[in-house]
Amino acid sequence: MEYLVLFFTQSGAIKYQRFLTSQRIHCKLQPIPRKLSSSCGIAALFRYQGDLKMLLNEDVEKIYQVEADEYILRYPLEQ
To answer: Which of 3, 13, 14, 39 is the most exposed place for a label (fewest CB within 10 A)?
Structure first.
């Protein structure tokens, strides 16, 4: 599955890219799509088949699953 992660800070995005690389997960940093935010931030795009809980840390604000042109919120889940 393909995921897009949003962060609280740009430095958090860079740290997260390093983290994913250490886990042997290829990650591409890119601007956040306008559909998700009007601010100029950085998002991480990557493919992953495991448990998303293993990829959470304090820098992650939101995780979306990407399907075609749609973004499905996977973290945090709405209560």
So the answer is: 39
Which of 41, 52, 51 is closest to 13 using CA atoms? 41
Largest CA distance in the chain: 32
CA quadruple 9, 74, 45, 15: dihedral positive or negative?
Answer: positive
Backbone angles phi, psi at 67, to 5 degrees: -135, 110
pTM higher than 0.85 for the full model? yes
Retrieve residue 55's tokens: 């990829």
In tens, the pLDDT along 24-55 reads 999 999 999 988 986 768 999 999 999 999 99
Give, as one character, the DSSP assignment of residue 9. S
How far is 47 from 1, CA to CA, in rounded Å?
A: 5
Taking the C-alpha atoms of residue 43 and residue 65, their distance in angstroms, rounded to an integer, is 13
11 φ, ψ (degrees, to nearest 5): -65, -30
